[in-house]
Design brief:
- By secondary structure, the protein is of the alpha+beta class.
- The strands form six sheets. Strands 12, 15, 18, 19, 22 and 23 form a six-stranded antiparallel sheet that branches. The protein has a five-stranded parallel sheet with strand order 3-2-1-4-5, sandwiched between helices. A four-stranded antiparallel sheet has the order 6-9-7-8, sandwiched between helices.
- The longest helix has 21 residues.
- The mean pLDDT is 94.
């Protein structure tokens, strides 16, 4: 088979690598990809928002199916575009991608179908939003309604923080159009985990769960980021809770989308928090999580290409997972997630051994890699336990000098 993976980040590199490991896949293309993917795919310099260019490339190369990584092309209707041209593509339609593209849409869906989530209100004007904050008190959660690259959520521990976040979004337009509407939610306390599923024509294939670390610095301190590291499995979340999440949240969400006339195909990412009252939804995404993909896909034993071919054809498919633990640490550029410092030279990555290096924001410059984004790399290792995997990663990371970059030294601490 020939497969086209659309996107350029770490998540897409992990998807590319998984396809390249599949005996059924002869050729993997990545568009636009990044320099670090060149070992695993042929790079096509076509922007992920150039739907016509991507579709033409898929036709010319005889691609069997395309797999969309990032949320932007999905929200803008790339799946509808490809399908109108008779091309096989995996992902949600523009209408179904609203489950991520609009927090308000997702919250209203959950309310209507009694899917457990935090209480909330939606606002487009500052004064009513501030009155609601004063009435509710802190801690409280402020979310930009639209897409904000994983950074549009503020967990405000004080009323002042909440007021500042609302002002930034509604008045300061920190997230542009995405923040012209805000969702203000009750703060939920508990253990978080990511539950991702392949969904096609009403069939749901759950993946093994993972947990990511959103805060920039050790001890879960600092600003929210797109994710500073992740691990799988999550030993502190029991199988009973996973089963309950599937039956009470994931399955009803897929059924709800179908009932609304916007059936969901693709990767349904469910961010879950285990509260005293059971699992509740923090957010839905319409694609793989980043960095969760980088620790979940390496645990897949099944041939990824054959699995995808089967579900796209509506044939029976089985997903097998290994019992290994995988833990990944994000290397970020100094200043991330605010004022990112690009252009610093990375150390010689060939000196790392026994780990996988997944490229996100890197580019080749005179034969060596330099930082070209906020989250630059993810370095992961496997082991018989989270502790062993953690030890393996940090042993390797500490053997190199990361001048111009930083990483958290405590990924996996909740499990350990």
């Amino acid at each position: 088979m020939k497969v086209l993976v659309i996107g350029r980040g770490g998540r897409e590199h992990a998807i590319v690598r998984q396809f390249s490991k599949s005996p059924s896949v002869m050729k993997v293309f990545a568009a636009p990809g990044n320099d670090g993917m060149r070992e695993d795919a042929e790079i096509a310099a076509i922007d992920e928002m150039d739907f016509a260019g991507l579709a033409e490339f898929a036709q010319q190369q005889g691609v069997d199916f395309s797999f969309v990584g990032p949320e932007q092309p999905l929200s803008q209707g790339i799946v509808d575009f490809f399908e109108a041209k008779g091309l096989q593509i995996f992902g949600p339609s523009k209408a179904a991608a609203q489950i991520e593209g609009s927090k308000a849409f997702a919250k209203e869906l959950m309310k209507k179908y009694s899917i457990p989530t935090a209480g909330y209100e939606t606002f487009t004007e500052i004064e009513p939003a501030l009155a609601f904050i004063r009435q509710q008190g802190a801690p409280i959660v402020i979310k930009a309604d639209g897409l904000a690259a994983g950074k549009g959520v503020v967990v405000a521990l004080t009323e002042e923080e909440a007021v500042s976040a609302v002002n930034d979004m509604l008045e300061g337009q920190k997230f542009g159009e995405s923040g012209s509407k805000v969702v203000i939610e009750e703060f939920l306390d508990g253990e978080e985990f990511s539950f991702m599923s392949f969904v096609q024509n009403g069939q749901i294939y759950p993946m093994v769960i993972s947990q990511d670390h959103k805060r920039a610095y050790d001890g879960d301190r600092g600003p929210n980021t797109g994710g500073m590291g992740a691990y799988s499995p999550v030993p502190q979340i029991s199988q009973d809770i996973v089963d309950e999440t599937f039956l009470e949240i994931v399955k009803p969400a897929v059924q709800a989308m179908a009932s609304e006339g916007t059936p969901f195909n693709g990767i349904l990412y469910t961010g879950v928090i285990l509260t005293e009252k059971g699992p509740k939804v923090i957010e839905f995404n319409a694609r793989f999580g980043d960095p969760e993909t980088q620790v979940v896909l390496p645990r897949m034993k099944s041939d990824f290409g054959l699995f995808m071919e089967a579900i796209l054809k509506g044939e029976p498919a089985v997903l097998d997972w290994n019992n290994q633990a995988v833990l990944g640490v994000v290397i970020a550029a100094d200043g991330y997630p605010e004022q990112v410092q690009k252009g610093a030279h990375l150390p010689d990555l060939t000196r790392l051994s026994g780990v996988e290096v997944t490229h996100a924001g890197t580019k080749l410059s005179n034969g060596s890699y330099v930082g070209n984004g906020g989250r630059v790399l993810l370095v992961s290792a496997s082991g018989s336990s989270i502790q062993t995997a953690q030890q393996n990663v940090y042993e390797q990371l500490s053997s190199l000098e990361w001048s111009g970059f930083f990483y958290r030294t405590d990924i996996g601490w909740r499990a350990i």
